[in-house]
Amino acid sequence: MPRFAANLHYLFAEHPFLDRFQAAAEAGFRAVEFQVPYGFTPAELAARLRGNDLSMVLFDAPMGDWAAGERGLAAVPGREGEFRDGLAAVAAYAEALECSLVHVMAGVVAPGADLDEVERTYLANLRLAAQTLAPRGVGVVIEPINAKLGISADAPAYTTAGMRGYYLNHSWQARQILAKAACENLFLHLDLYHAQILEGNLAQTLRDCLPQLRHVQIAGVPGRHEPDRGEIHYPYLFALLDELGYEGWVGCEYKPFAGTRQGLGWGAAYGLHATPSRAV
Fold it and tell me: Which of 1, 34, 2, 5 is CA-nearest to residue 18?
């Protein structure tokens, strides 16, 4: 049975951020992920994890100025120093939170950019991140993200429908990058929401990507709501992940349609708890 992690930048936004850990645990989650831990000290986040018996399974490396439209630095020529400096914070948080997987975001490609230079920059930064984190037992993942859509309307910070201009878009492209970088602790992170928008054929994509796959995320298409909304038949894909022997976590990175607990009915078969219905 897949193991589900609550993405705390998407789920339980009805609560202040630090209270979302308890809310996730009460809903049956045994793990969490979220994009940016850097607004809190490692100690206070670690205390919330321990206090709620939760594992931290994924966070993002510093991604630059989000408000200015930046979406990562790894493939942005000229920002190598800032990327390198950010790895110290990544290592500190990974150690304190006992998190063994970090997502390194490629970033947005400027119009007219030299794509050969962009790829060279990306490969060099990915190798640096992998080499820096390997002695700490931390893996690095890269994620294809659709470049068609943008910020989600009326949603918490860091929730998106896509990232306009993002460099890494397709699973085949990510697999090529992984092969070129050739690092033992560099892997693939596949968000099935983005994969459906960009390429479809999700069952075969999972089969093709399995050797390099270390993290999966889910959301319904269209709308990026609960996985039981929209065109993707997730129960089939969850069973397929079991059949393929996938051992990583499945991150719930979706925007609740009408409240987090109210929308957790899809997860009842997997140990998650929706709010009980009131008698009429």
Answer: 34
pLDDT tens sequence across 102-141:
999 999 988 877 788 989 999 999 999 999 999 999 999 9
Task: Catalogue all structural domains in the chain, each as residue range(s) with its CATH number.
Answer: 3-270 (3.20.20.150)
| Mean pLDDT, the chain, whole residue set | 91
| 14, 260 contact by CB (below 8 A) | yes
Distance CA 132, CA 255 (A): 34
Spatial neighbors of 220 by CB under 8 A, at least 6 apart, are 193, 226, 227, 228, 229, 230, 231, 232, 254
Name the token pair of 146.
């659709």
Residue 143: active-site member? yes
Q: Which phi and psi angles does 5 have, rounded to 5°? A: -115, 135
Residues listed for the chain? 280
Q: Which of these is catalytic: 80, 82, 143, 231?
A: 143
Confirm whether 253 is a catalytic residue.
Answer: yes
Beta carbons of 11 and 273 less than 8 angstroms apart:
no
